[in-house]
Amino acid sequence: MFPRTKTKRLFTSTTVDFLSRDNLNLLGGGMTRIYHVVRFKSGSAYVLFDGCNWNCSFCVWRKVTRWSLCLPLKTRRRLDSIWKAGRVRYLSVDEVANLLKNAEVTTAFLGGGEPTLDPELKTLMRALRREGINPWIVTNGENLDDEMVGLAEGATFSIKALDDELHRRITGVSNRRAIENFRSYAGTGKLVAETVFVPGLVECDEIERIARFVASITPEMRLRIDPLVQGANIEKVDECIERVREILPKTDRIRVKGSIEPPEILYPEVRRWERR
Predict the structure, then answer these.
(1) Does residue 217 lie within any of the structural domains?
(2) Smallest Cα–Cα separation from 193: which of 145, 163, 160?
(3) Residue 97: which domain range?
(4) CA torsion angle for 174, 176, 177, 183 (degrees, to 10)?
(5) Whole-angstrom Cα distance, residue 160 to residue 49?
(6) pLDDT, tens digit, for every residue of 128-164?
(7) Global pTM?
(8) Structural domain contains residue 268
(9) Residue 265 located in a structural domain
(10) What is the distance between the terminal CA atoms of the chain, rounded to a whole angstrom?
(11) CA atoms of 76 and 44, how far apart (whole Å)
(12) CATH of the domain at 148
């Protein structure tokens, strides 16, 4: 049984879990840990899994919101109300596949949360492939295996820190296994490296070390540097990107021009519960 996402005192806008431990023990028969799905105008979807095997000190899903960050605050608060009312549940493999198929999704980003903890992940990925949907894993990499990588269109592999002591401070666990997996799968051409610029914790010196490590294996790999959601300093992040490009040329962050159109919520069905 993988660990339950802790919400009390960790999520800022809610105080209770919607599933009891007894309910978690009943999961099986094609039931996933997926609780939230959104679709973007581009045709991609983000599929959120509950639970993680790490306890990152700056985790967005535990510290800020359990919902898509691209949703307006008002919408996320509405979703929190639905969650607290116990009207959110985990979806089955078939439900997720049908939801994405009917929404004409082309690529499904499987994240959260840590998707590789879900025993139904591979079954889901195969189901998506059958529907012509490309599965893309967003992961800490610790539990990646050959079959997951083989089924995936790609994987965003998050490296929190290269220094193991710092990694333990951030996540509570060693990075040894994750780093071994990165070495194993970097040559597949499917990985995109990612890290988070965290002021006072993971700054550019450490990110340069990460870049040197990545470049020593695959110098053509992309590296994405994400600003910290909780108080991002974009100027410092951009300065770091310029430095890191001297080591790993394909380094950047997500850049958005103009206003962002909020994604469509495929699950939970907000309008359905608003009518009640």
Answers:
(1) no
(2) 160
(3) 21-179+259-274
(4) 150
(5) 19
(6) 999 999 999 999 999 999 999 999 999 999 999 999 9
(7) 0.88
(8) yes
(9) yes
(10) 34
(11) 20
(12) 3.20.20.70
Sheet-wide strand order for 251-252? 251-252, 223-227, 191-197, 154-158, 134-139, 107-112, 44-49, 34-39, 264-267
Q: Distances in Å between the alpha carbon of 66 and those of 111, 149, 151?
A: 12, 26, 26
Strand-pair partners of 46: 38, 109
Question: What is the three-state SS of the chain?
Answer: CCCCCCCCCCCCCCCCCCCCHHHHHCCCCCECCEEEEEECCCCEEEEEECCCCCCCCCCHHHHCCCCCCCCCHHHHHHHHHHHHCCCCCCCEHHHHHHHHHHCCCCEEEEEECCHHHCCCHHHHHHHHHHCCCEEEEEECCCCCCHHHHHHCCEEEEECCCCCHHHHHHHHCCCCHHHHHHHHHHHHHCCEEEEEEEECCCECHHHHHHHHHHHHHHCCCCCEEEEECCCCCCHHHHHHHHHHHCCCCCCEECCCCCCCCCCCEEEECCHHHHHCC
Residue 118 domain-assigned?
yes
Counting the structural domains of the chain, the total is: 1
- For residues 242 and 158, give the distance between their C-alpha atoms in angstroms, rounded to a whole number: 20
Bridge-partner residues for 109, per DSSP?
Answer: 46, 136
Model confidence over 38-97: pLDDT tens digits?
A: 999 999 999 999 999 999 999 988 889 999 999 999 999 999 999 999 999 999 999 999
Residue from 157, 148, 154, 133 nearest 266 by CA? 133
